[in-house]
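Input sequence (82 aa), recorded before submission:
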Amino acid sequence: MNIKDFESALKSLEEIVAQLEGGDLTLDRALELFEEGVKISRFCNSKLEEAQRKVEMLTRTAGGNLVETPFQAPEGDEGGAP
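Predicted structure, token format:
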């Protein structure tokens, strides 16, 4: 899997789904595509979660109030999939 961004990952995932829905694959090829699709799906999910955190993060103040603050990624965090 050589996916670099969310958009290309989503396109690859859509292509895999179309191939699997076509039903003209051997069992081995279908399993290969399924495994690749799961990996791409995890990558996409990771990117979506990262984007959500970047949009806003709620933090609790000493008084117990919730305050919206911009998300700051930890140093060295590239946000890639495991």
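Checked by second reader. Residues 40 and 77 are 20 Å apart (CA to CA).
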